[in-house]
Write a structure and sequence with these properties.
By secondary structure, the protein is of the alpha+beta class. It is built from two helices and seven strands. The protein has helices at 2-33, 73-78; strands at 36-49, 55-57, 64-72, 84-89, 98-107, 113-118, 121-128. The longest helix has 32 residues, at 2-33.
């Protein structure tokens, strides 16, 4: 038993090195089979969040963004616009005045990384809805 422990102690560094090399080869083979790529998705619609009640956009609408993402090729091929969520928070927008609010973009697939998106903010102008009888 003592002899086994000595052999194990003498070969421990070789075993750890072999394990690290095996992991490196596995990672290289995986990346070769399904390489990472960068794609751009255009016209991702921007949804308003927390818009004050009885208000309407005075000029235009919330628009859309272009999103640049990085992921394995197989994941990118299965993505579509519905996998993205672009939002503007209108809770702090003053009614009757133009305001610039940041756009936040998220993606539902955890394997996808958002590199950038444009535009990063949106100018909005909310007006109250008034009815005259």
């Amino acid at each position: 038993m003592e002899n086994f422990r000595k052999q194990l102690a003498n070969n421990l560094s070789s075993m750890i090195l072999a394990l690290l090399l095996a992991v490196a080869v596995w990672i290289a083979a995986t990346l070769q089979a399904d390489p990472f790529a960068v794609w751009e998705f255009t016209n991702v619609p921007v949804d308003p969040v927390d818009q004050p009640a009885d208000t309407v956009f005075f000029e235009g609408d919330t628009g859309s963004v272009s999103v640049r993402v990085r992921a394995p090729q197989s994941v990118l091929e299965s993505l579509n616009l519905q996998d993205f969520e672009a939002q503007v928070d209108l809770s702090d927008v003053e009614i009757g005045a133009s305001a610039t609010v940041p756009i936040s973009v998220t993606v539902h697939d955890e394997g996808v990384r958002i590199q950038s998106y444009t535009p990063e903010d949106l100018t909005v102008h909310l007006e109250p809805v008034v009815s005259i009888t």
